[in-house]
Design goal:
heterodimer, A: 421 residues, D-Maltodextrin-Binding Protein, domain 2, 2 domains, 8-stranded mixed sheet, two-stranded parallel sheet, globular, B: 271 residues, MetI-like fold, 13 helices, 77% helix
């Protein structure tokens, strides 16, 4: 009785809510700029001056993909524009994305534009913003730098010695590494450690040089804060000083520089025997074929590539522009610090830039898994390096053969699937 | 000897009570302190015992677009889930405890099975169906999903409660002029009110905490959890605390409001 009334009331309410759900805003469905402050800045500073009202909704990867797949399967949708990392797009079916070749904007980098074709002949998404991984240190650590070391041109050997000096002086292991559940450790192995030691990622996975690389990484791990397996955003540990020297994504270090700009320095990743390996991060904007208002969606994609929008995005997210634009002098401390470190890294004489894994499609996650498993077995479980590499080699080979992905830099180009040598 | 045993027993009792209270209160208190602290204090250690009443983190959320709508949606969904899960679950619990019917054992098992499949697995087909039927992006549609999640609890709780009430009470009421219906409303219902409250709390909490379905099935009408929780894990520490505080407080207020019905279940007098 009372329940009956309440139920009827609830149902009636639900019906009114349903009818009120009609919408005209462009829905921007994104996996980027998720932290609340960044989302707020995206809504107000980046999308506020677009012609239409934009509903910016940042999501975790799971719901992002599930919702998108549901709309594609149902054949009708509400999502107007997708914002995601290159890896998210490459896991999608290229047919589900609208061809954006005729939109009239693209990034200044040919490499990025080529990646955005996802193996087809036309642009499946448009590069939107870029970032990279760098090192950051508390200024208190600088006095412990090994003799003769230049912080802007460190080698892995010097980094290990530096971390050891700090360890000895403070009694605590103060190197920080993002090995937590949400940490981006696999990118360090794929884009930094392997290119720096083996001049490759896939071909050289189980080479003798790779054994040396893991041996050195284990030396570094001895001076790494053991709680690193819980660290995913090193800015937190830099701020609370659990960590003095850290490696992480530029936007995951930003808060440290913005809150206490005078206490921290940013510097390039170290160099190994085969150069200074580093890797860019690319996010892109795309349009699903189910977008309700195609013209508005295309206009929004074009809006995101305008120089002034790119600068506003830089301020909002700490991701750098992909178009040619003059950087103003009044940028937040984190942007200045990261920008400087990235410029030194890419401009260094021994620079050895790597590319994001390409052509792996939906297997990107498994590809990362190979590197994470290798790390866990060698470093955390202390298993024999040669044995583990020979084991994991099989898993890597299977992924490469199944996807048929050709080699990407710094691996030498291949005919067909990239071989694991 | 006897007095000694009694006093050590009392000590043990008091210690357990204090420990259990601390178990619940200390994390909440730390949450409160960190919510009301400046970002510098949040990142420092040790923490102050008294909050410094820095409202910076909270006022950020005051200006965060869409918070109030999301809060309203969360309350609506939770309320509908509560009403629907009890409206469906309580009769099922009554039937299970009062009647013998073929397949009763299987039915009890099947009810539990609704919790056996993880939502990320169900969300895709569910979302496709919702989009096709027009239930997509509605508070009512999401409440339906949450009701499915809450029903096993409401059925099992009400089942055990009905089983605890002797059928003789109902039979006595029938002999005194009650119909089956009035016997239920006048005799049984007051007795099981605490159980209904308990299932209501379960339903509320399940709906309030659910993120995945909410994030996939709603766009414009997002619940607070879907709106905020996904974005908090990557946010700076002081905003994590403030956001967590905002998510916890409405649930605490609700549980506080219905606590007297719950206490009645444990034999403590209504106050």
């Amino acid at each position: 009785m009372t329940f009956g009334y309440k139920f009827a009331g609830a149902a009636a309410l639900a019906v009114t809510m349903t009818t009120g759900a009609a919408q005209a805003d462009v829905l921007f469905w994104s996996t980027q700029a998720k932290p609340v402050e960044e989302a707020q800045a995206m809504r107000e500073q980046v999308l506020g001056n677009f012609q239409d009202k934009v509903d910016y909704q940042p999501n975790d990867g799971g719901p992002w993909l599930t919702r998108l797949q549901a709309e594609l399967q149902a054949g009708t949708g509400t999502i107007g524009v997708l914002g995601a990392l290159h890896g998210d797009f490459s896991a999608m079916n290229a047919d589900d994305l609208v061809d954006l070749s005729d939109i009239g904007v693209m990034s200044a980098s040919d490499t990025f534009n080529e990646l955005a074709k996802l193996g087809t002949d036309s642009a499946q998404y448009i590069p939107w913003m870029q970032a990279s991984y760098i090192m950051a240190a508390n200024k208190k650590a600088l006095e412990h730098l090994p003799e003769g070391a230049d912080i802007d041109a460190l080698t892995y050997e010097q980094l290990i010695a530096w971390a050891a000096n700090v360890h000895e002086a403070t009694g605590e292991a103060k190197f920080g590494f993002p090995a937590g559940p949400k940490g981006l450790k696999h990118r360090f192995f794929q884009g930094y450690l392997y290119p720096s030691y083996t001049d490759g990622v896939v071909r050289t996975f189980a080479s003798d040089a790779a054994v040396t690389a893991w041996e050195d990484f284990k030396k570094l791990w001895a001076h790494t804060n053991p709680a690193s397996t819980n660290f995913s955003f090193l800015q937190e540990q830099l701020l609370n000083e659990d960590v003095w020297i850290a490696f992480d994504h530029t936007s995951r270090l930003a808060q440290a520089f913005n809150e206490r700009p005078d206490d921290f320095v940013a510097f390039p990743a170290p160099a190994g025997p085969t150069g200074r390996g580093f890797m860019p991060v690319i996010a892109g904007v795309g349009i699903p074929k189910t977008a309700p208002d195609m013209d508005a969606a295309k206009a929004l994609v074009a809006h995101m590539l305008k120089p002034e929008t790119q600068l506003a995005t830089l301020r909002a997210t700490n991701f750098f522009p992909v178009v040619d634009v003059e950087l103003p002098g009044d940028l937040p401390p984190a942007v200045q610090a990261a920008g400087g470190a990235v410029a030194k890294m890419s401009g260094s004489a021994d620079a050895n830039p790597g590319l994001l894994p390409a052509g792996l499609g939906a297997k990107g996650g498994e590809f990362n898994r190979v590197f994470v498993d290798t790390f866990e077995r060698i470093v955390l479980a202390n298993q024999d390096i040669r044995t583990v590499l020979d084991d994991q080699k099989g898993a890597l080979e299977a992924i490469m053969n199944e996807t048929g992905a050709p080699c990407w830099a710094p691996d030498a180009p291949s005919e067909g699937a990239c071989p694991v040598e | 000897m006897n007095a000694e045993t009694r006093s050590s027993g009392r000590f043990l009792y008091t210690a357990s009570v204090v420990l259990l209270c601390a178990w619940v209160i200390v994390p909440l208190y730390l949450l409160l302190i960190n919510t009301l602290s400046s970002p510098e204090t949040v990142n420092s250690f040790p923490k102050p015992f008294w909050p410094e009443f820095d409202l910076g983190s909270l006022s950020f959320f005051a200006g965060f677009e869409g918070m109030l709508t999301a809060l309203k949606n969360s309350i609506l969904v939770a309320a509908m889930t509560m009403v629907m899960s009890i409206a469906i679950g309580a009769p099922a619990g009554y039937a299970l405890s009062r009647f013998d019917f073929p397949g009763k054992g299987l039915f009890r098992l099947l009810i539990l099975l609704t919790r056996a499949f993880p939502l990320p697995l169900l969300a895709l087909p569910l979302a496709v169906m919702f989009i096709r039927t027009g239930l997509d992006d509605t508070v009512f549609g999401l409440a339906l999903v949450h009701t499915t999640l809450a029903i096993p609890f409401s059925v099992l709780i009400t089942f055990s409660l009905f089983s605890g009430i002797p059928i003789e009470l109902e039979e006595a009421a029938w002999t005194l002029g009650c119909t089956r219906l009035t016997a239920f409303t006048k005799v049984v219902l007051p007795l099981i009110l605490p159980g209904i409250t308990a299932s209501a709390i379960f339903a509320f909490v399940i709906s309030w905490n659910e993120v995945f379905a909410a994030a996939v099935l709603t766009i414009e009408n997002r619940t607070l959890t879907a709106f905020l929780l996904q974005n908090l894990d990557t946010s700076p520490l002081h905003l994590k605390f403030a956001g967590g505080f905002i998510l916890v407080v409405p649930a605490l207020i609700f549980i506080f409001a219905v606590r007297k019905y719950l206490f009645a279940m444990w034999g403590i007098a209504n106050r």
